[in-house]
């Protein structure tokens, strides 16, 4: 029988700068659960079974890229005539053919082998503001959150591409928001 649910919220920020211009996967993005809290719950509720689940709530990317040519939106985006499916296809094509930076999302299930899950394009959108926002959780799931399995690790990689490396003015901040849910059963 369910007794109680105790939730911790965790956040990991990872900044990518010109000093990180390599293709190494940053793998310290899955937090280590707080064993002290779990031990305190065990001491408080003797004889209770505790199931702990680490859940990724969001993978947010904030970027300001100005070291490549400015992104040019396709005319079909703003003409008001083109069907949205065609306009979105044109936008995706423009994002992946124009100069940009890229972030790759990787997943490790077995502790040794990285699996490429997807990427986001980060073009120069200076005219739209200093920073813009992309989310990467939808690469992993179509749900609102993503439960992490025992031993699973997520990693982010600044991808090498034909438009060179980050400049000192480029800024990329990746934030992962986590929930650690302890469910207590009698």
Strand residue percentage:
35-45%
Helix content: 10-25%
Shape: elongated
What is the N-to-C order of secondary-structure elements (H for helix, E for strand)? EHEHEEEHEEE
In round numbers, the mean pLDDT is 84
> How far is the N terminus from the C terminus?
5 Å
Tally of DSSP β-strands:
8
C-alpha Rg (nearest Å): 20 Å
Number of helices: 3
Unreliable stretches: none
Helices and strands: which structural class?
alpha+beta
Largest sheet: 5 strands, antiparallel
Keywords for this entry:
five-stranded antiparallel beta sheet, 186 residues, elongated, alpha+beta
Task: Draw up the topology in text.
Layout: E1 2-16, H1 35-44, E2 49-64, H2 84-97, E3 101-108, E4 114-122, E5 132-135, H3 137-140, E6 146-148, E7 153-159, E8 171-185
Antiparallel strand pairs: 1-8, 2-5, 2-6, 2-8, 3-4, 3-7
Could you walk me through the main structural features you see in this protein, from its secondary elements to its overall organization?
With 186 residues, this protein is of the alpha+beta class. The protein is built from three helices and eight strands; from the N terminus they run βαβαβββαβββ. Strands 1, 2, 5, 6 and 8 form a five-stranded antiparallel beta sheet that branches. The protein has a three-stranded antiparallel beta sheet with strand order 4-3-7, with no helix packed on it. The model has no long low-confidence stretch (mean pLDDT 84).
């Amino acid at each position: 029988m369910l007794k109680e649910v105790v939730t911790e919220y965790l956040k990991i920020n990872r900044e990518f700068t010109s000093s990180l211009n390599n293709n190494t996967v940053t793998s310290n993005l899955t937090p280590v659960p707080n064993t002290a809290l779990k031990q305190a719950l065990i001491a408080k509720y003797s004889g209770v079974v505790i199931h702990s689940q680490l859940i990724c709530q969001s993978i947010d990317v904030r970027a300001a890229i100005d070291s490549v040519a400015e992104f040019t939106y396709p005319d079909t985006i703003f003409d008001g005539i083109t069907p949205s499916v065609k306009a979105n296809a044109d936008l995706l094509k423009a994002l992946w053919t124009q100069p940009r930076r890229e972030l790759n999302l990787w997943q490790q299930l077995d502790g040794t082998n990285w699996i490429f899950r997807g990427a986001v394009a980060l073009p120069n959108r200076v005219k739209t503001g200093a920073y813009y926002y992309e989310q990467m959780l939808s690469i992993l799931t179509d749900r609102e959150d993503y439960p992490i399995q025992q031993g699973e690790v997520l990693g982010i990689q600044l991808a090498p591409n034909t438009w060179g490396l980050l400049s000192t003015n480029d800024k990329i901040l990746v934030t992962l928001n986590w929930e650690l849910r302890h469910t207590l059963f009698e």
